[in-house]
Design brief:
Distance between the termini: 42 Å
Radius of gyration: 26 Å
Largest sheet: 2 strands, antiparallel
Number of strands: 2
Order of helices and strands: HEEHHHHHHHHHHHHH
Amino acid sequence: MSHSASGPAPATDVNKPDRRGRSARPRASDRARSEARLGILLAAPAFIVMLAVTLYPIVQAFIDSLSRIRLTAPDANEFVGFGNYAVVLSDPVFWSAMWVTLFIMVVTVAVELVIGFALALVMHRAIKSLRGILRTAILVPYGIITVVSAFAWFYAFDISSGYVNSWFDWVPGVSEDLNWFASQGTSLFVIMASEIWKTTPFISLLLLAGLAQVPGELEEAAKVDGATSWQVFKRVIVPNMKAAIMVAVLFRALDAFRIFDNVFVMTNGANGTTVLSLLAYRTSIGRLEIGLGSAVSVLLFLSVVLICFVAIKLFKVDLSSARGGN
């Protein structure tokens, strides 16, 4: 005897494979689709303006990189194809600048991530009456113009006008006659220290926003189960902050890879501290070789794109699931 047609319909399992053997996934809700459309509409004007402002210089730089252009001989321009790239890529100075830039990026971003996480945890755990004061104090370095910050650090470590040597002469290796800008190692140390001091607040704010998205119930449940503070941090907080960590690392890595002001002010590339941005500036402005300088700039841009691609692949973050929508 057949079942009554008026009976309740069986519940559909969204994870049950369909006839083709694929799992049936729930479709995006109308609210999620409307939020996505609203986000696109809100971001579109800014995206169009940024694209209009940045696209022309990028295209023009690529066009210039295909020609031998010297401002000292503007009538002697010559199309050389990828000849400028061959010259740049065969120059040891370019590869030295590349490795120095990568070294600065890796060290500064790693240190900033650790310190930024600590500062974010302090601001997140602080009592409400102190949160505003802490956030303001931490943000002070980030509010200073980079050139001003670079000059301040330069004069602090300068052998003639600085005070670091006299204040820290008790530290092994530091003395009154130590010239921090006389060797590559100490020069890079000052450059990276100034960069870390200046931009750690930025990464701490991004991580603080990620901490606010971690469900407190998960932390409480882990503590009830006997987890230590380190286990809660490693197994609860960090996995739920993966998207925020990726954004923080990606933004800072791109910014650190394009470092210019600190190096230009402190050493101007002396003692093996030349970075890619400074090399492009010297080639284009110093030597007036627009074609070669544009080739360096294009290679710098392609390096930034490659860093973005590698970072996104390494983190493997699904941003749609991170925001909690389908």
